[in-house]
Amino acid sequence: MSRGPAIEAFDVSRTYELDGVSVPALRGVSLTVGAGDYVALIGPSGSGKSTLMHLLGGLDRPSGGRLVIGGREVGSLSAPELARLRNETIGFVFQAFHLLPRTSAVDNVALPLVYRGVGARQRRERAAAMLGRVGLGHRLHHRPNQLSGGEQQRVAIARALVTDPTVLLADEPTGNLDSTTGAAVLELLERLNVESGVALVMVTHDAEVAARARRRIAMRDGVVVADSAADGGAGT
Amino acid sequence: MRLAEAWRVAWDALRANRMRSALTMLGVVIGVASVVLLVAIGTGTKQRVEQQVEGLGSNLLLVVPGRLDMGSAPALSPLTLQDVDAVGRVVGDPNRVAVTVASGATVRAGNREDFTTVQGVLETTPTVFARELGRGRYLTRADVDTGRRVAVLGDAVARSLFPDREAVGQQINVAGVRFRVIGVFTPLGQSLGVDRDDEVHVPVTAAQRLYGTQRVDAIAVKAPDRERIDELGDRIVAELNGRHPGTEFSAVTQEQILGVLGDILGILTGVLAAIAGISLLVGGVGVSNIMLVSVRERTREIGLRKAVGARPRDIGVQFLLEAVLLTSVGGLTGMALGVGGALLVAALSPIPAAVTWWSLALAFGVSAAVGIVFGVVPAQRAGRLDPVVALRAE
């Protein structure tokens, strides 16, 4: 995977305006996520890791600094351009799954392809194939409420990867699952990271989960306090 | 492809909340149905009035004293039968000239009586006004010249006075004077709320003697051709002005009458449509309201769609389509109800109703437009949602 860095952040800050008061959530974060990386983002509540996650996923724009995703400068992109960038380079997996209710697994997985302009038949084929890769080839037409928590998260993972992104951002992906199911989901993410070379960036509270990552970034009070890559570990 | 997906999502969203969608549509349904129904009634009334005015006979010219202004009081007529002869000379054919001197009177036959309009007329009336006799005969020149006390009854009068007997040949008593019935008109029905079968025709000379006058109220002329009808009217008015200096006369054509009536009924139809339009507007506010609820309920869905690549526009279009679908389905239902209501009104009541294509097209167009207008604000709100905030929503 020698495609150059997937995401680069240079002194990125993010400040929220709350009732006229500026609240800094990130104050100068610099990091690089390489292609095929496996990064755990750890830190207590309010440390800024969710804010960083949103920035890395192109859901938000930095207040200061430079953020480059897939070779494009986020600050200079319009809302539609940013939407397209998310569609093409980022896959999201959320703690609460965020599947559409009353919608079959295959249609949930196909959703990102709708916004890419892929035709209905091809969407379904690609979505079905992706569900096969996460072990749900037999659950194509089940609705979220007919699936277990682990199965729902697998559908969400298939949805995140159906567009063949370069980065998979997972926000507490096992947080709503029991330990056995959570472990299986984690193994799936790791397998996909190795198989397809998608960079995996995972926000987690769980020290055990974080220990499995090749690289760990610890945050506190809006700054990176430790990055195992900087200590000579994997990564750039 | 995105649009197809948006339609599908909009349809699914409406089906998922059937009760709510149906109640929201109800506002639009009622609005559209009342627009279609009320416009149908207005149009039907206008058509019927036009038919009736045209049914008076073609190329008709009515000559009356005074100006033809809306609301001006009718002037006392100075016209006499000599003026009628003069008009006949201007026209060139006395058979094309009819007169009337009319008054309400009580007509009796045996122990039955009826208050009706007794009109003194010339024998030319059936030709000029295209009236037909059901039974018996009409007045003749001789009847008029001699002031013979004979009468032709409207159908309603004949049925009222002689419910179980043939009227022709019977005696009637008009204001104390006996007349012999010689004919009965074929029924004409209602016109502008007036029963046109409620009348009695007698020779104008007999009527003048009855009312103690030498005057006639108005002159009607059946013009030989449509092209020169206005010129003929001008010549008649000039002749009468010469004979009666100091009195103004007007000659009115059917087109002018139709024009005036058409304007009045057009305004009436417009007012009815506007009143119905207000209820459509209220329905639109309901749509706007429910769309805002829908956006709020589906905030997380919006956040997710944005996360996977939906542009603000994609989200906006999706919600706009939902609103338009809501009002369009409501509009179609309302049209069906309005047309059904109009057919019922036309069939079961004396009120005429005619459904026109333009009113259907207008009602549907307006309901779709209501969806757009009242869907824009919720759709924009959805499109502009910050995905980070939307994903966190409960």
Structural features, described:
With 236 residues, chain A is α/β, with parallel strands linked by helices. Chain A has seven helices and ten strands. Chain A has a six-stranded mixed sheet with strand order 6-7-8-3-9-10, with helices on both faces. Chain B has two domains: 2-52 and 260-392, no CATH class; 92-223, no CATH class. Chain B has helices at 2-16, 18-55, 81-91, 125-129, 141-146, 155-161, 204-211, 229-243, 254-297, 299-307, 312-348, 357-384, 387-392; strands at 60-65, 97-109, 112-121, 133-136, 150-153, 171-174, 177-185, 190-191, 194-195, 199-203, 218-222, 249-253. In chain B, the strands form two sheets. In chain B, strands 2-3-10-5-7-6 form a six-stranded mixed barrel. In chain B, strands 8-9 form a two-stranded antiparallel sheet. In chain B, strand 8 and strand 9 form a beta hairpin. The longest helix of chain B has 44 residues, at 254-297. Chain B is elongated. The model of chain B has no long low-confidence stretch (mean pLDDT 88). The chains are: A alpha/beta (236), B alpha+beta (394). At the A-B interface, helix 2 and helix 3 of A face helix 1, helix 10, helix 11 and helix 13 of B.
